[in-house]
Amino acid sequence: MPADAPSRSHSRKSIRAVAAPRELMPEAPELAGVWTAQVITLLPQAFPGVLGESLTGRALRDRVWQLQVTDLRRFGEGRHRNVDDTPAGGGAGMVLRADVLGRAIEHVRTGVPPSVPLVATSPRGRRFDQALARDWAARPGVTLICGRFEGIDQRALDHYGIEEVSLGDFVLTGGEIAAQAMLDATVRLLPGVLGNAASLEEESFSDGLLEHPQYTRPAEWMGRRIPDVLLSGNHAEIARWRRAEAERLTRARRPDLSEGDQAHAGDEG
Ligand code: SAH
């Protein structure tokens, strides 16, 4: 029923061209079994954005994952495809309409397994973290709704059981940057995205610790030398030093992180 909404697109500005090559962002998922990010946004031209660069971009071109971007405007009301209205009860700004968002959600979620999380980016949400990135990476994909203006009509959040997820304790003008950050953190965990899988095991948060300091050539710079142990060739000593540095840094900077917490968070979901 809502699938006919996009075809009623008589108005001039109803469908905006996306900037990225079309084959990178198929209208419908082309490859079943390929990890798929669905994004609902008023700024489709902002995608793939930085996700089209470097390792995530190469993986996108290699079909390690796929990106399906849906322009919320297509589901807008009337000749002007309105998507928002003034807040009930008064106040500043505009609120995204539940009916408009509902049509977009039903369109993109058709045929999508319920194990694919339905998420709205929101400063009110659960804080995004490495454990959530791991959870999403282990699923067939994720559907991300990018808010704008004052946010989304509460009834849409309630009706579809949308999970709100925050990038951090600050307010962005829209969800697109948050969505790209969350997708970057998730996609790099998919098999085949990073060249060197071993680097995943040692980096920050993977074992509840921040990463040890890193050095590379030259051996001396501005009177500062690389710690001798790293040049010693003694791998056991190097591993011990890195572990100790990781623990020292974590205690100093993030006493809230503990191995137990992280291991537990990683087991959820
Ligand atoms: N009035 C809202 C903020 C709206 S900001 C409030 O006070 O909670 C507009 C949109 O930007 C939001 O709907 C959300 O999609 C996005 N956004 C803003 N800050 C964000 C954050 N920290 N994390 C994720 N998304 C955010």
UniProtKB/TrEMBL annotation:
Quaternary structure (record) = Homodimer.
A single GO CC term for this protein reads: cytosol
Q: What is the lineage of its organism?
A: Bacteria, Pseudomonadati, Pseudomonadota, Alphaproteobacteria, Rhodobacterales
**Entry keyword set:** Cytoplasm, Methyltransferase, S-adenosyl-L-methionine, Transferase, tRNA processing
Q: What does this protein do?
A: Specifically methylates guanosine-37 in various tRNAs.
Query: Which enzyme class?
Result: transferase
Q: What's the protein name?
A: tRNA (guanine-N(1)-)-methyltransferase
Membership in a protein family: Belongs to the RNA methyltransferase TrmD family.
